[in-house]
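Record format v2
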Amino acid sequence: DVKVTQSSRYLVKRTGEKVFLECVQDMDHENMFWYRQDPGLGLRLIYFSYDVKMKEKGDIPEGYSVSREKKERFSLILESASTNQTSMYLCASRGTPLIWELFFGEGSRLTVL
Amino acid sequence: TQLLEQSPQFLSIQEGENLTVYCNSSSVFSSLQWYRQEPGEGPVLLVTVVTGGEVKKLKRLTFQFGDARKDSSLHITAAQPGDTGLYLCAGGHPAGNQFYFGTGTSLTVIP
């Protein structure tokens, strides 16, 4: 069965802390995505990666960076967390260009105090 | 950014009622997807439509893609409590890994 696993379901951090959110998929998918979800705004793309060590900025990359050292793992990094980054973060993966379905993890709810 | 507006944003109905959710954009998309997200879970794909005017049925759910491929609707017949969740449309250009999500419709079906 398809599985996308996010390392932390709930995190509470302080302003200025460095935050790592990790995502692992077991489907050998090439494409991986990080979205943030806020009420009334839907899902907004932060970054995506189409191959190991390759990344592309999404619509809201400011304040975030990503790392993809292995095909199955895609990490989202907040170098210096701020309160406006309090949100639900969703990781997704997708297989070949012929497969249009996005497979999502359960989400990581981050609160920055 | 290509925006998709969903309406209504919130919907609370009694079990057995019918409902329609709309997803509108000024942009043309190669495909339109609908996802459902339950509390504490990630979104799960319900359907993908790719042809203008296309209609797909999934049990009590009927999905339609507009002729101009700018809008879509989701109709649920005889809603059940198990239909409760957040419904998200996503317009896409899959070849470019581009998926633009709508603002979401939160549906509550009361037993």
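The radius of gyration of chain B is 13 Å.
The first strand of chain B starts at residue 5 and ends at 7.
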